């Protein structure tokens, strides 16, 4: 049951995709006397760090609390948390007109395991198809098709580590250029319809305004 202890926080980033998406509004409830469980999605401040991060609890033992993003390939985040670092547990998400429950504990843990299993399968399949996919993308043969005529736009967001660019087709985010990176991350199959060479690259301290294409 929610009470006046709950806090609403806007989520940014992509480390908890697909369960959380940028601009989701998270309802965060402090734990109080409740037990922190593996599988919970929590909001916390890393030790000696002012950032606010939302990740899933991956391990709770005598050493402390370890976390990991659902969309992360690493085993654990580099920090070990204590209860004092934790703002609270995410209980639901407000996404536009929808309220979506976020499950923790065993259900959350099973969900995370399922996401990782699907990612491993995707990596194996994509490794087989990648050469053909990239050859087709380089030819640009499909850029003149129907999807190529859909409007795309680029948005910029100031992050604690620099500027992040997002490529949208309609309302869907199909690509990201993360701070400090020089290679766009474009979702399949959209690389087939995008001229990646025409997309901007960021240098340190660059400021980019919204661009419409």
CATH topology of the largest domain: Umud Fragment, subunit A
Helix content: 10-25%
Low-pLDDT segments, ≥5 res? 204-213
Structural class: alpha+beta
Shape: globular
Name given to the CATH homologous superfamily of the largest domain? Umud Fragment, subunit A
> What is the CA-CA span between the terminal residues?
46 Å
Number of helices: 1
CATH architecture of the largest domain: Ribbon
C-alpha-based Rg, rounded? 19 Å
Q: What is the total tally of β strands?
A: 12
Order of helices and strands: EEEEEEEHEEEEE
Q: Mean pLDDT, as a whole number?
A: 80
Word description of this protein:
It is a single chain. The protein contains one helix and twelve strands; from the N terminus they run E-E-E-E-E-E-E-H-E-E-E-E-E. Helices cover 16% and strands 31% of the residues. The N and C termini lie far apart (46 Å). The strands form two sheets. Strands 1, 2, 3, 4, 5, 6 and 7 form a seven-stranded antiparallel β-sheet that branches. It has two domains: 101 residues, Umud Fragment, subunit A (Ribbon); 66 residues, no CATH class.
Question: How is the topology of this model organized?
Answer:
Elements: E1 7-10, E2 25-29, E3 41-44, E4 53-61, E5 64-68, E6 86-95, E7 98-101, H1 105-139, E8 152-159, E9 162-169, E10 172-177, E11 185-186, E12 211-212
Antiparallel strand pairs: 1-2, 2-6, 3-4, 3-6, 4-5, 6-7, 8-9, 8-12, 9-10, 10-11
Structural descriptors:
alpha+beta, 1 helix, 12 strands, 213 residues, globular, 16% helix, 31% strand, single chain, Umud Fragment, subunit A
